[in-house]
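Complex record, two chains
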Amino acid sequence: MIALDPQVPPGPLEMKWDRRRFSGQLVSPANKRRIKIIVVGTGLAGASAASTLGQLGYQVECFCFHDSPRRAHSIAAQGGINAAKNYQDDGDSVARLFYDTIKGGDFRSREANVYRLAQISTQIIDQCVALGVPFAREYGGQLANRSFGGVQVSRTFYCRGQTGQQLLLGAYSALCWQIERGQVTMRPRTEMLDVIVADGHARGIVIRDLVTGRLSAHTAHAVVLATGGYSNVYYLSTNASGCNVTATYRAWKQGAAFANPSFTQIHPTAIPPAGAHQAKLTLMSESLRNDGRLWVPVSPSDRRSPNEIPPSERDYFLERRYPRFGNLVPRDVASRAVKSICDEGRGVGPGGQGVYLDFSDVIRQQGIDVVRERYGNLFEMYQRITGENAYEVPMRIYPAPHYTMGGLWVDYNLMSTIPGLFVIGEANFADHGANRLGASSLMQGLADGYFILPYTIGHYLAMVNRPPIAEDHSAARAALERVEARLRKLVQAKGRQRTAASFHRALGKILWDHCGMSRCAAGLRGALEVIPVLREEFWRDVVVPGSGEAFNQELEYAGRVADFLEFAELMCHDALHREESCGAHFREEYQTEEGEPQRDDERFAYVAAWEYRDGDTPALHKEPLNFEFVQPTTRSYQ
Amino acid sequence: MKFTLRIWRQRGPNERGGFVTYPVDDVSPDMSFLEMLDGLNQRLIVAGEEPVAFEHDCREGICGSCSLVIDGVPHGPERGVTTCQLYMRRFANGATITIEPWRAKAFPIIRDLVVDRRALDRIMQAGGYISVNTGGAVDGNTLLIGKEEAETAMDAASCIGCGACVAACKNASAMLFVAAKVSHLAMLPQGKPERTRRVMAMVRAMEREGFGSCGNQYECEAVCPKHVSVRFIAMLNREYLRASIMGTRIPARSDAPHGESY
């Protein structure tokens, strides 16, 4: 039975983090040298945590499945990173960033965590500058900002369109330093396949060497998961092809509660799928909505080319439905509006999956050069992928799964319900509630890794000082056997010659239809019936070539798909039980007459944390969300 | 569209490799190059054959995973893109396309088209960082960095570490990669204190890893998906020269640095 104690320190909001840092026990420098910590994942959260822990003097062993720690998917973030620096003197403050984030999350996140995130945001920028991150600068040499994601202040720091890569290279370079110093042992091309739990504490992990296929157990004083999000459960998403749920899902099966698994963000502006061959969806920066106007033909049967359709026969549906915010409504609102238009049969392009994003007005008003300067690289990318010139014909866009707010449940110290197992970055559920604002994911990953975890893990290590278990401890052997058995089953399955990808695609469609942008009880119940059938077919019919004792990309992939096939059910249970609409979670039964979401704070102001039960449906535990400092209001963008 | 693919197959680092020919049809011009290979692999798996191993991840040109030499050119015929951003409409219907891995002594083949690029990480570990602790950094605006310096640093920092520059060079030199990394930090005031040590250590590491020397032929710049300029190689040479001169002037460590005696 899981107990959810959020461990939030008492006192005023502004004092909580200070109090926690002061009350936490410290580990003496001499003892740090004897303590080993495992970090899994080298994105922003993992690389910043591993490097900081190494610098503090711990022995760190760091794992990633890429060939180099620099390739983690944080690298693909385009837009920027928020910080409450108020360099523009436009009224920003820690309190405002806190409020924007908690309201953007539709009041489904923990106040104390979000406030701490806003407090730390300013330190992150300083740290990144010190590491040599080449943020955009003004002519006078000061840091430049832009406004992002529909907020009213300019608080986003950026490095052209590749902020993610630059921040990750900063953390990676810090990691390189610690590797050189011998504080961090880096193990690339390894995949974590299980957590070792002994006496109720996380004591290590089982990994597969992706080059040789060899399995091994690694033990330590504590384990940190920084393994990212699971948008790829939908098959098509903006995530990199390697992103998966395996690490967090296997931890769930060992006793870590999974929080709000159905909270998944669907980004409105991706390039629509072109056909069945499609392997991923490419995101176009949200900034395009600053100048582009979304529309579809008024008449669904209108098959003229977009430039031949006169304005009176166009439906600028966001401007019509949300006159106040127009095309700049938050991601979840925009995505839903696009989907409902397409569901009505009014979409454009192949399969009716798309709406126009039209720049002709701004080109006419401000000139093509202005548009080229602002968005030139995006237009180029669009043309490369679609073969169309968006200066001449409107772009087509369609929503795509992008980020998962759900993740392993963690307390204020970022520790999961398994003592000694810490979870940071997108892999945890903590700060974004039911919807994440733009430019906040980079902020959270680095806050967790550089500034929060290194403190909080010290307290755990000081309180629970037990030497690591032996690598042939019975718990380690049991974990190895679990992993071996599953891999063997995959390699031996040589059924009716269906590939793992075909099952993945089928699962993605079920989730997209029933647990995507809008959900309803009947659809979710239907999904819960068909997913187990698909899973059975998978284990019966999937074909995995080659052996487990070699470099075998298809085996890696099939293992991840197998976990998605189980995890998808957990998402549907979560979406079904939450009988309200909040943030990215839109239940068709709970909407106003105008089609706006209806949140139910009476019944659902809590974090849903699910416990794994072998052979049974998962058990729900609730962490109530008490809003002491802000008053939950209705998000309205009309 | 239809194509004939000649793909390098090699089961392991020490095994003999060779080209195998695969016809593919049903290719849509809207497919990316990697989606075309996905299609081939799906077919091979169903036929009970082993799929072609190749590296890929973000598929939007930033992670630097993908690494194919296509018809003799790293990342293929289009300039300024990675393989994952290359689309089939770029090829003539019916063409024969030859696909090989990065070839360099410092990049041993793991399987088929997948190579081991850890040598690049080891160069970075030798000195490609600014050694500052987490915490206690001064306000980011304390360091004023002119827009031009910041932009030049950013041009260098755009390197995605894919290794195409090495694959394109007949000497398999990693000069453009090292130049980008050295220049990025040397341009910025934060990087100045360690610039002497950094360039020496990184160049030494580059030589240790078995990369060749620069022949000034600029193939690296031509295939770089991020347009990293060979001007940075000139900057690397200057940094190296400066360090060579400066390095000799660093005073030997004294036991009593302040001349104090007890």
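Note: Chain A touches chain B through 82 residues (CB under 8 Å).
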